[in-house]
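[job 4471] stage=fold_predict status=RUNNING
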Amino acid sequence: MRDQALWTEHAAFINGQMYGGFILLGGPLGDGRVHRALLIVNSESESAVRTRMMEDPWMRAGILRLLSIEPWNILVSNDKLDPVLADIVKPTPPG
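[job 4471] inference complete, writing structure tokens
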């Protein structure tokens, strides 16, 4: 993974998005035979996710593809995560 082209630029982008509050969690999936990753992001819309991720040097170079964007409603969490999630995930007011 770290030997791929543009690794330094990709890592800087991902870290910047994490420190900026857009990426909450992320990392590779599976045993590494197939290169896949999962990102949990804080975004208002699918189009905002697509726009932001197109800034990634790996996306621009065709190294990384966005396969799907799925909404996620958190129904269960560990008590240790509750204060963190409460700060990150703002409830949408009814109506």
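[job 4471] summary: The chain is about 35% helix and 15% strand.
[job 4471] exit 0
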